[in-house]
């Protein structure tokens, strides 16, 4: 009888442990997911973004809000911005070399779906694009809230360029 009771108790313990494992794992995953979602959906307050001016040192906690424009490493290639994307364009013929999505909240318009690598932008469509000049080796360009921020390696803002749509 004692042996039988011991087996039942062990079976219950194993079942309870397994059940807790099934419950705990999704809760941990859900909590991690909520943290990510909360971080992504939390906009910066206007009083914070107003401080992003030339010479302002961006604190660590705000640096994740910025998306880097990768450095241009090709001759005759410039970065142009349009509708939530950075376009690497050959400055001689306006052929798109590379496209980088930088603002996922802006949907590409149907007529702009042709703006892909290798597409040559017709002359009449070129005025839509705003140039983001290539930074020198000491400065990087980061995007946030429809603005390009030129920053040194310490995240000190040295220049701001509004990217109006």
How does this structure look, described?
The protein has helices at residues 2-41, 46-49, and strands at residues 67-69, 77-82, 85-90, 96-101, 130-132, 140-144, 147-151, 157-162. By secondary structure, the chain is of the alpha+beta class. β3 and β4 form a beta hairpin. The longest helix has 40 residues, at 2-41. The protein is globular and about 40 Å long. The N and C termini lie far apart (80 Å).
What is the typical, i.e. mean, pLDDT? 77
Q: What is the percent of helical residues?
A: 25-40%
Rg, please?
25 Å
* Major sheet characteristics: 4 strands, antiparallel
H and E order:
HHEEEEEEEE
Q: Tell me the total number of β-strands.
A: 8
Bulk shape:
globular
Low-confidence stretches: 13-39
Question: Numbering strands along the chain, what is their spatial order in the largest sheet?
Answer: 1-6-7-8
Distance between the termini: 80 Å
Output the number of helix runs.
2
Structural class: alpha+beta
Percent of residues in beta strands: 15-25%
Keywords:
4-stranded antiparallel sheet; alpha+beta; 8 strands; 165 residues
Short structural summary:
Helix content is 27%, strand content 24%. By secondary structure, the protein is an alpha+beta fold.
Topology:
Elements: H1 2-41, H2 46-49, E1 67-69, E2 77-82, E3 85-90, E4 96-101, E5 130-132, E6 140-144, E7 147-151, E8 157-162
Antiparallel strand pairs: 1-6, 2-3, 2-5, 3-4, 6-7, 7-8
